[in-house]
Specification:
heterodimer; A: mainly alpha; B: alpha/beta; Rossmann fold; Alpha-Beta Plaits; 2 domains; four-stranded antiparallel sheet; globular
Chain lengths: 227, 301
Amino acid sequence: MKYIKSYNIFTPFPHRLVLHLLIPALGVLLSLCLMLVLRESAEAMQNAHFFSMAYISGFLAIYAAVADGRIFGGSMRKGESRIDYLKCSERGTAVYRDALIGDQMIRLLTVFLAVGLGALLSVLLLRRSPQGMILSWLQFSAFAWMISQTGICMGRLLKFEAQIGIAVTCILVMGMVATLLMMNESALLQETALLPLSVFCLLSGLLLGVWMVRQSVKKKGEEYHDC
Amino acid sequence: MEIKRVVEAHNLYKKLGRFELNVGELRIPQGFATALIGENGAGKTTLLNILAGIRLDAKGGINWFCGTTDIDKGNTRERIGYTGPGHYYLPGWNTRQIRKVSELLFDNFHADRFEDWCKRMSIDTDGFRKDGKPVSKLSDGNRMKLMLAGVLARDTELLILDEPASPLDPVMRDELNNILREYLAGGEESRPRSVFFSTHNIADMESVTDYAIILAHGKIVEEGFVEDLKEKYVLVKGEPDSAEAAKGILYSFSGTGSYGYEGMCLAADVDRLAGMNVSLETPTLTQISVAVMKKHGRPAA
């Protein structure tokens, strides 16, 4: 598939390894350890099922936002991420666009799959209700997706130095989201606020992704003029 | 013999801040190696970028391969191989990724040929491993070799190379001359190959240069086949006593110490030096270029 091919070209192998394998695997491993430690305390176990999802979604969001600065950082600023080799080919802009689309698709898939793995773990090991876990899974994934999209968008609009600020912001926001979700046991809050909010996050994350791709491709095109 | 032009341009104009590139007529002969020579800031890179289609914002008309006036039509970009300084590859790319992206970008890229060139030029990249050295960690010389390997692995008809010799060591510069000669010789009668390169190392690239274009302040001030230029100019060396008299005749003049002077004279003016204590020699391309650049030197601020 052309999107995957182009995405693989633009992203270093270690980055893909960390994003798609290492962070999810560490999340699962850590939550297993935590469950083992907390197995004596029924109260602590109540919230332990959120741990893997919070960990995975939080770190995926932060890592994706920070690492993107090294890959597509500044791509939404004219002349910031010049690659003259692409300009030598009629297909250069198309390959770049495919890589950006591939990046959006793969990150979305990674967030949902990795957080889903945490949710599945909770269902299997802690015997949580599958229905409740599906809801948590969607909420964590949607929030993580939106946060990483916002961080990435800032990194593509701003300079790499801004990544530190972005990372700190992501940590704070993700921490607040995780606390909110972990403390929430009210079905009313779920229905009235969290569910609509997560749908909003998912959709706005997707829209932001479309805008980022279009903007980066536009800037690439502008590099042929007054670069 | 009528010489075809691989690129012809008319009234090329581009303003960049206070600098203006203003080329009335540009003709690059097909089947030859043409050197673009000029001082820093003369407009060499801008001109090469325009001809390679890296910039599309210049005024004027360009005709590639005796027929195409739009670089994005008729597979024109496929037929041109370009290497340039600065932001060429993505800094994080390694040899393996460059091979993959080249396969996506160009129909005429041959992965096996790319590997052969990498080996032949001894590029230190840790081979084609997944975690091979990224471009950002390569020396300038290896980076240039990697760019050259990329364009030589394709079936092109015109190479546009921006300062290919500058980052290379003397042995590799010599090898570059051979490589470009091989490239030119590999062309077919129906698809002759041409090379257009800019250089500051005129002496190192002289053996491969057939045609020279000298640029000063964004304008072409001299051009011609090297052999013709060597007939057009004469290198004059004289004793100090004839310096003042020769100054008015010479095209360029330098050094009036106790060892005498040296200057460039147009062959047409050599007769006017009769009776002076001077010796005449055939100049090298470097000497001609320096003389022409001095003549059209930057006016004092």
